[in-house]
Amino acid sequence: RANYTKGRFVHARHTTDSPDWITPSYIVEAARTVMGGIDLDPMSDAAANTIVRARRFYTERDNGLAHSWRGRVFINPPGGLVTEAWIHLNTQRRVSQWIWVGYSLEQLQTLQSVFPLHPTDFDLCFPDHRIAFIENRAKQRVRREKLIAKGRARGANKAARSLALRLKQGGDLPNSPSHANYIAYYGLRRAIFRRVFQQIGRVVMA
User: Fold this and answer.
1) Does pTM surpass 0.90?
2) Residues 95, 86, 4, 66: what is their CA dihedral angle, to the nearest 10 degrees?
């Protein structure tokens, strides 16, 4: 998934340092099992599609919100475009099934008054652990550089200096999931959704 709107960069809510986070494969494969395939990932990029393997995906340059969506849609909406993506998804008459990955439970509050349909009007899964989204490698490099610079800056605290040193020596970037998540489903294969996603967390049927 990519982060964009009408050709302009929009900073994501996934983290203050990196806006490009990819859904891990076990969630994607569960979605593929439920829907029988993925025809479209409308907010994506080439790196994400190596995991999603949608028949078609729209990138930042394509601007997925400017296109009609159809078939079986998998979407992990980028921060800053959650409202627009939700409205667009639910006004596409040629979408037969969709799975929406909600980055945070706060989205449920955000979406309460933006459209007549709300995620809680659909079947939901609340994963029993926070989803560890995968960071794009290019964004990893940028975030590493920013954290190193932050730790070397005058007045940096001990923790920032220690992290900068560890990263400079090739240590792993911090990547603790910061939000509880939810997954919503629309379509006729509801029993399959319940069977598959109850292995991931608590499933609540609409």
Assistant:
1) no
2) 50
78-96: pLDDT as tens digits: 888 999 999 999 999 999 9
**Spatial contact of 2 and 60, defined as CB atoms under 8 Å apart:** yes
What are the structure tokens assigned to 45, written together? 């990029």
Q: Please check whether residue 137 is in contact with residue 117, taking contact to mean a CB–CB distance below 8 angstroms.
A: no
DSSP strand pairing (95-102 vs 182-186) = antiparallel
Rounded to whole angstroms, the Cα distance separating 152 from 110 reads 37
Identify the three-state secondary structure at position 143.
helix
The angle formed by the CA atoms of residues 105, 109 and 111, to the nearest 5 degrees, is 105
Residue of 148, 175, 177, 146 whose CA lies nearest to 163: 148
For tokens 């099934």, what's the residue? 97
Q: How far apart are CA 204 and CA 3, in angstroms?
A: 29
